[in-house]
Design goal:
Length: 504
């Protein structure tokens, strides 16, 4: 790479000095200024091969300069730096044509690498395309909260995706805010004028998922007394968010794969193909790669969905965001009529060291509880400890040694209802829970009998044909060659196991 002329605008002298030294060592000619006006004068007279600009300067906003640069000199790349580390800043920088957005404090090595990439990458229509108009709302109305490095990386990726229809899979533990990420992609994307439709796979009975997704015709099955539109039809022109995609049964996975491959679908009981005009965003707390290896998730569907993966870190990995999140939730509680509250320094320190098994959702519930139950305006550590100790998490709760099976089932059902608060299905909960219990029960019995379905059926008190039907309906994988003693003996003989005749 030959030497390039780089223009830097930042009102912080220390940052200008550090950048100038690093880029000069990399072999470039560097000019710096703390004035947006001076930067524009340089650009206007044709100086510079690359611009690095801060957002907030005394006499200008770096984001406002970018469109002028794009109009005056379309081929001149702009890298934006900002201490206003929010999703909106990243989105605005991308919308206005910035080559890259970097949050302060930035990694110097990464910035130098970004500079080299900007100088090497050819300018084409993809880089200078017009992105969606800026979404409505004030700058202080943030769709996502957090300024940690992990969240900054998510903001950068989201900003890149706003002007596309690429399929996205969001990975993250329960309570990390996967739906918030999906909504941000929709609300600031090219389909924001269309509907945002969400479907939680874990909350729908397996036999109804295809109807929920694709709709059904009158008479398609017992109880289908009229035509019903599915979520694909409801989301036309917008975004379809498939939450807990790992809970989708295999037969529905096959139909979804066809939609992604061919761009059309048919209703249950219908014959006329319907064009699928939606952007698909999926989310899961499961490891889909492991599910593919176990035969529980289609490999071809995984690669169709996993075009752009986004991992949301658990709250324990971004503890520096906790004070800002707590302030945000206290403000929301105050809007709901609860008195104002703040945390003292010891309370904040305790929250940062807490493991947060329930992630951001658990923090929000805690803050609302504090706002409702305590008169103190300043919440101290003692109150925080008391509240968190009274609400033990699933992970930290020990199992009593003398716990009966019915007590264990009751305990896990309580956790299930607590974890799915607000997202429980309107109907079919009995079938959903029955399937959750039935699958592991059958799998454990098959494992105990080494795959022998006759013995497993006897253990379960089921007819063998009934067991076979349940194995098929629940997509339970039975290892080959271990279903009967005869098959095991024949397999051993084929591998050269000594027969009784040989021993004689």
């Amino acid at each position: 790479m030959s030497a390039a002329s780089i223009l830097i605008a930042d009102d912080d002298r220390a940052i200008r000095t550090v950048l100038s030294q690093a880029l000069t060592r990399a072999g470039h000619d560097v000019r710096t200024t703390g004035s947006g006006k001076t930067l524009w004068q340089w650009v206007d007279r044709g100086d510079g091969d690359l611009v690095i600009t801060d957002v907030v300067m005394p006499d200008a906003n770096g984001l406002d300069i970018i469109p002028r640069i794009r109009q005056q000199r379309p081929g001149l790349r702009v890298i934006v730096m900002s201490a206003q580390n929010t999703l909106l800043t990243a989105v605005k920088a991308t919308e206005r044509g910035a080559f890259e957005y970097l949050a302060k404090p930035f990694d110097l090595k990464k910035l130098v690498e970004t500079v080299e990439r900007a100088l090497e990458t050819p300018d084409d229509s993809a880089d200078s395309k017009t992105l969606p108009a800026e979404a409505g709302g004030e700058a202080d109305t943030l769709p996502l909260i957090g300024r940690s490095p992990a969240m900054q990386e998510i903001y950068r990726v989201l900003a890149r995706l706003m002007g596309t229809d690429l399929t996205v899979v969001i990975f993250g533990e329960s309570g990390t805010g996967k739906e918030l990420i999906a909504r941000a992609l929709h609300d600031y994307g090219k389909r924001k004028e269309g509907p945002f439709v969400a479907l939680n796979m874990a909350a729908i009975p397996r036999e109804l998922i295809e109807s929920e997704l694709f709709g059904h015709e009158k008479g398609a099955f017992t109880g289908a007394v009229q035509r019903s539109a599915g979520r694909f039809e409801q989301a036309k022109g917008g975004t379809l968010f498939l939450d807990e995609i790992g809970d989708m049964p295999l037969e529905a996975q096959t139909r979804l794969l066809r939609v992604l491959q061919e761009g059309e679908y048919t209703t249950v009981g219908g014959r006329q193909p319907i064009k699928a005009d939606v952007r698909i965003i999926a989310a899961t707390h499961r490891d889909l790669r492991q599910m593919v290896k176990a035969g529980q998730f289609r490999e071809d569907l995984f690669y169709r969905l996993n075009v752009v993966p986004i991992r949301i870190p658990p709250l324990r990995e971004r503890s520096e965001d906790i004070p800002e999140l707590a302030r945000h939730f206290f403000a929301l509680a105050q809007k709901d009529g609860l008195p104002p509250k703040t945390l003292d320094s010891e309370a904040v320190a305790y929250l940062k060291n807490y493991p947060w098994p329930g992630n951001v959702r658990e923090l929000e519930n805690l803050v609302r509880r504090l706002g409702a139950l305590y008169n103190q305006e300043v919440i101290d550590r003692e109150i925080i400890e008391q509240e968190l100790n009274e609400m033990p998490s699933v992970e930290s709760e020990s199992t009593p040694q003398d716990e009966s099976l019915s007590q264990a089932v009751e305990r896990h059902l309580k956790h299930y209802f607590a974890a799915h608060e607000g997202s429980l299905p309107a109907a079919g909960l009995h079938d959903r829970i029955l399937q959750e219990v039935e699958r592991p029960l059958i799998e454990v019995c098959l494992s105990a009998t080494k795959g022998n379905q006759i013995k497993a059926a006897q253990l379960l008190g089921l007819n063998r044909n009934t067991l076979r039907k349940k194995i098929r309906d629940l997509d339970i994988q039975v290892a080959r060659g271990v279903k009967s003693g005869k098959k095991r003996l024949r397999g051993n003989a084929q591998r050269g196991a000594p027969s009784s005749r040989r021993r004689k």
